[in-house]
Structure formats: structure tokens, C-alpha cells
């Protein structure tokens, strides 16, 4: 059912959550847990919007510009905004449109080739685990040890207290709360 991947790429425009979604659906995860996981995985995007809200409102593409704001388009939009050139919003729209179209083409190619390949791709699901391990290593090497250590401790404690299929969401919530409090009272002081 290759077309599910295309539908997911149109409706869920965030790569990490699409990978996680496959595992959540495979594990018959309750819909509320899936929705909350999506919210927490993509909460950073809520902070991007206000940067460009006034500028985007001048465009007839306003809803699409908000929907298509990703890490990559945000970085490019910042550079476009700094350039002070005319028709900035139009350029931002074309950047967003190109980004999403290339995302959809990549999804279509991946789904098509994956359906055609006669080989089994068992073990490839480790790619997401490897990606998150890489992120943790990068976090560690940047000398920000507290988030890594705190998240590991929270996850291990809640794994010990709760069943393995019920610890993830409380771990995300508690680690997020601790990080908010940490950045608010410890770092800001």
C-alpha cells in the first residue's frame, strides 16, 4: 500500500514523526498517544511561526507558508528575510513549495522502489534508532550533558515503574517539563 506513504507525506510534513508513526501504528498504539507524541516531537515548530507571522500574513499563501514551515525552510526564510530584497514572501513560498515537492517526490520514489525491490529489507528499522543515537552523540559532544543524562534517567525510572508499552509518553512529558524548568530557572539566572 505505497499510497499510504504519499498520503502521510502530504498530511504529516515532518520526517522524524513519519518514521516513528510506522512503529506506533505497528504496535497498535492508542490514537491519543500518537497525537501527543506528534505534538511533542514537533513542538519546536510552534516557535518558528511567530518569527514570520506578520510577513506571511501579507501573502495569499499564508496558510500554506505556516503549514510548510520546517527546520529547513525556517533556516532559509531567515536568510531571505535578512536579505531585505523585494518579494521576500514570494521567494519564501517557492522555497516551501520546492521543499515539499521534493519531499513528495522522494517519498514516491522510495515507496515505488521499495515495492519493486525483490529483496527483504529486514533490519532497516534500525535506521531511526541510529539517527536518534547520532543526535544524542551530537548533543553530548556539544557539551550539553544535562538533557542527555536527565532524559536517560527519567526514561529508565519510568520504565522500571510502568510497563514497557506505557512508559514512553510519561517519559516525554516529564523530561520536557524538567527541561522547561531547567532552562527557565537555571540557565536564565
Automatic annotation (TrEMBL):
Record-stated family: Belongs to the AzlC family.
Keywords: Cell membrane, Membrane, Transmembrane, Transmembrane helix, Transport
UniProt-annotated location(s): Cell membrane
Name of this chain's protein: Branched-chain amino acid ABC transporter permease
Domain of life, source organism: Bacteria
Membrane topology: Multi-pass membrane protein
Membrane-traversing stretches: 6-24, 31-49, 91-116, 146-162, 169-187
Organism in which the protein naturally occurs: Sharpea porci
PANTHER family: INNER MEMBRANE PROTEIN YGAZ
Gene Ontology biological process terms from the UniProt entry: L-valine transmembrane transport
